[in-house]
Specification:
By secondary structure, the protein is mainly β. Helix content is 4%, strand content 49%.
Length: 513
């Protein structure tokens, strides 16, 4: 079958239903109304340059034909009609923002070929921003052009808090993102063009620990709904590339997100406290986590009790990040119902990386996590569940966060529920196949590992499997579990493992086949 993931007015995204991860089993041809468009070998592909409100017949070699109709739009406007030059020299900020402001609801703002130098831009509801294949939105290197957005503002009449800015799970001031929207809906960013933060040519990646105001993201959506980002390349953000925050109904489709391997905190996509998020057919290669699913630190978690919920990640390829898919560590609102399948992870430090710790709170519940049909190569430790994460918090070296003695369960204690990992192939591991370390007072509830093959790099180097205090180095280690209530292990192979295949400590119920 061919599945339609998104059909807009001028672009569409489709997925082939099969059992392969990211790549199709063989190359195929794509025809539109009988005319060959291109050949491809990925499970997700896109069409651009379509006409609004037009019927098409799609044919893909080996699949049934598929009919679809593009969406209607009110008007389409060329940004150059508002004075944008796109010459790579002129500051086009005012021209672009004016075009956005004037665009009728349901309209499309089109960027033809060119390099559009710009400071941050504010998007609005019911609009489509289309970047043609050779169009580049290039961020200004002048840090003074990135306004500071306050973290919280109080309503003048009621005194109620209105949240605007955020960084790493707290409501704090931040620099405005290059593409920015708050309290808006029905926004589409589509095309084969590029949004480039240009941080490599600025000072954003310098002295990152000593900034009074956190660095801007590339795209930021706060309390938005029905947002689609389709086809574009996002790269070289000052910090995180794509950051939806307390938003719902989000689709990130057939994207490329890139940053140098040594660039600081350049996560590809960090949905925070969002509901219903689809990340499908994307390619990530960045300097930090490829995807980090978050829900705030404890004040945000307690105030809103908004978990990251109903996230689907499928047919993506992730390379060179610290973690391919990370949950936390800012997850005080919880993470629920995450499904990851048909993905490839290459040369990331970890495959699945769960980061939590004492102090995240009783609402910091992670439950209902499924990983299946995943292929990894060169991942140092494919599976990490760590309830002792020791980074980014002032009390990380305190007795409270270092003692291995069981402490009383209270309002600060997080909870990890059910995790299933199955039908995976993890080649050329270095440190360990799997490392899961719960709290003695709150063990990980239920872990299943099933039908997984691990092999080890012949030149494997030792390292710590998880960022925690007093971590010990491992090399070619098997599957390590500590403080787990229920553990199920079926059909596991670890070729070249040094020492015991299964290292289980403080496991309540263990089922092994």
């Amino acid at each position: 079958m061919i599945k339609a993931l998104f059909i807009g007015s001028v672009s569409a995204c489709f997925e082939l239903e099969n059992d392969s991860a990211y790549y199709s089993e063989k190359e195929y041809k794509v025809l539109l109304n009988g005319q060959e468009q291109f050949s491809a070998h990925t499970n997700v592909f896109s069409l651009f340059g379509l006409r609004p409100k037009t019927e098409y017949q799609l044919e893909v070699t080996g699949y049934d034909s598929f009919k679809f109709k593009t969406a209607a739009e009110t008007y389409a406007v060329d940004v150059k009609a508002f004075g944008a030059k796109g010459d790579g020299v002129t500051d086009d900020t005012l021209s672009i923002q004016t075009a956005i402001n004037c665009l009728p609801a349901g309209g499309r703002l089109y960027f033809p070929e060119g390099t559009y130098c710009t400071a941050p831009l504010t998007l609005k509801s019911h609009m489509t921003l289309e970047l043609s294949e050779k169009a580049v939105l290039l961020g200004s290197i002048d840090t003074a052009k990135y306004p500071v957005i306050p973290g919280v503002v109080n309503d003048l009449v009621t005194g109620e808090e209105i949240h605007f800015g955020t960084w790493e799970g707290n409501a704090v001031p931040m620099h405005q993102a290059l593409l920015f929207a708050e309290y808006a809906e029905d926004i589409k960013i589509v095309g084969r063009g590029t949004v480039d933060g240009n941080a490599q040519n600025s000072s954003w990646w310098q002295d990152v620990k000593n900034r009074d105001v956190p660095r801007p993201r590339l795209l930021f959506f706060n309390r938005c709904r029905l947002v689609t980002v389709h086809g574009i390349t996002a790269r070289n953000a000052a910090s995180w590339q794509l950051h939806p925050y307390f938003s719902t109904g989000l689709s990130f489709l057939d994207l490329s997100v890139n940053a140098p391997k040594d660039s600081p905190n350049t996560d590809a996509l960090d949905p925070e406290a969002c509901d219903t998020v689809d990340i499908i057919g994307c390619r990530f290669s960045v300097g930090d986590d490829c995807i980090a699913i978050k829900s705030g630190k404890i004040e945000i978690g307690r105030k809103f009790r908004q978990p990251a919920n109903r996230h689907t990640i499928r047919n993506c390829i992730m390379q060179f990040g610290h973690g391919a898919i990370t949950l936390g560590s800012e997850m005080a609102g919880g993470v629920r119902n995450l499904t990851v399948n048909r993905c490839i992870f290459n040369h990331t430090d970890r495959g699945l990386r769960i980061k939590t710790r004492r102090g995240r709170g009783k609402d910091a519940v992670i439950d209902g996590v499924l990983f299946e049909n995943i292929k990894m190569d060169g991942v140092l430790t494919p599976i990490v569940i760590n309830m002792w994460y020791n980074c980014c918090d002032p009390d990380r070296y305190s007795e409270y966060n270092t003692t291995r003695e069981a402490l009383p369960v209270d309002d600060r204690t997080p909870y990890l529920g059910k995790f299933v990992f199955r039908d995976m192939e993890c080649l050329n591991c270095h440190v360990a196949a799997c490392y899961c370390d719960g709290l003695p007072e709150m063990p990980i509830e239920d872990i299943t590992v099933e039908n997984i093959k691990f092999t080890y790099d012949p030149d494997a180097e030792p390292g710590v499997p998880a960022m925690r205090n007093n971590a010990e180095e491992m090399c070619r280690a098997g599957l390590y579990f500590d403080n787990v209530r229920k553990l199920t292990i079926k059909n596991i192979e670890a070729v070249g493992c040094h020492g015991e295949l299964i290292m289980a400590h403080n496991v309540g119920e263990m089922n092994k086949e």
